[in-house]
Amino acid sequence: MDTPPSPADGKRAEPPPHPLPITGKQVRLLILFLVLVIITMALVFRDRFTDIEETVKTLGYPAIFVTSLVGSGGLVIPLPSTAAVFLGGDYLNPVFVGLIAGVAEAIGEITGYALGYSGSDVAQKSRFYRPIERWVRAKGWPVILFFSIIPNPIFDLLGIAVGTLRYPLRNFLLLAWVGKTIKNIGIAYAGAVGAGWVKNLIT
């Protein structure tokens, strides 16, 4: 897979030509569209997710998809996506749960990528952003894959960094999907084995 160019003399590397076949205006429209879709889904289903266990039992795989998509979109309307995947492993096929959650989370990460690609400085104030950008610039795809497999709260920043560095979108989505699918299959199998014990512990 392609890796971003290394900086010269401490200066920011120039992006490779035409990493995406779309213009800056189209990127902004894509961000707006994805945000509107995710907000709409969150508002429509918000009341249904008050009891996440009952929702997973009732809606099944669509509940996994919606919570994972909204959760990875980084919006201010939180849905318990990890809990949904964990409980989904108890009621549904853990492999299918992981595959669906992986697809949904990868789609949701397009928002962060598009923000970085559009030149937004929304992440610049975070003390974690610069180190992440340096790691992506220096190591490329292994960093993306590693952070997508390991549950962590900073993957949105990584998506912004990847977009800023003009890393190919198709490669980013593939890596995010593979890593997040592995992660979510693991969480779902953990739910299949331990959800009953956890529910007994907290009730």
Summed up:
This protein is an all-alpha fold and 203 residues long.
Domain tally: 1
Give the % helix. Answer: 55-70%
User: Biggest β-sheet, characterized?
Assistant: none
Note the run of SSEs as H and E: HHHHHHHHHH
Work out the strand percent: under 5%
* N→C terminal distance: 48 Å
Q: In terms of per-residue confidence, which ranges show pLDDT below 50 for 5 or more consecutive residues?
A: 7-20
Category from helices, strands and their pairing: mainly alpha
What shape does the CA trace take?
elongated
Number of helices: 10
Keyword list:
0% strand, elongated, 203 residues, single chain, mainly alpha, 10 helices
Architecture overview:
The chain has 203 residues and is mostly helical. It has one domain. It has ten helices and no strands. Helix 2 packs across helix 4. The longest helix is centred in the last third of the chain and has 34 residues, at 169-202.
Note the topology.
Layout: H1 24-45, H2 52-59, H3 61-72, H4 81-91, H5 94-108, H6 110-117, H7 129-139, H8 141-149, H9 155-164, H10 169-202
Helix pairs in contact: 1-3, 1-6, 2-4, 3-4, 3-5, 4-5, 4-10, 5-10, 6-9, 7-9, 8-10
